Amino acid sequence: MKQKSTAQKIALSGVLIAFAVIFGTFSIPLGAARLSPLQSFVNVVGAIVLGPVYALANAFIAALIRNILGVGTLLAFPGSIIGAGIAGIFYVKFKKLITAVIGEVIGTGIIGAIVAYPVAKFLIGKEGAVYAFVIPFALSSIFGGIVAYLFLKIPVITKVLIDNQDNKKLLKKN
């Protein structure tokens, strides 16, 4: 079983973060949030290829950079970070691509959306129902997760990004 080196993980993290930041500018404004299905794509790919710690760190860094550049909101933090972490944990536990997508939807679309309420209310000053973010966050994470799932099912992508034999066998089962 061949493991990725730390340098490879950091390099891929940089690519995923850049992808999330650059394409995060094409977000969909909805109320106080700017929905970014591409962040969910990055969360799922990072969770599967790099693991939960790197996926979580990547989500934090991408959200931070998007906020610094003014193309994101503070709501990016609870949504993307929780989603990336749970996607990674689900993938490590169940070893199936679809479980990472489910983890992303639960983490971003449900838990992250609920945690976004106090952020919106107290830090951004936006009032709304506690569940006001659940539907938009869930739709965004479902779309991004599905695109990531399909992307990782492409044989050449699987070969390049997921290079250990155990993961290759698991992908064939999925």
TrEMBL record:
Membrane spanning stretches: 12-35, 41-61, 68-91, 97-117, 129-152
InterPro entries: ThiW
Keywords: Membrane, Transmembrane, Transmembrane helix
Alphabetical list of Pfam families matching this protein: ThiW
NCBIfam families: thiW
Name assigned to this protein: Thiamine-precursor transporter protein ThiW
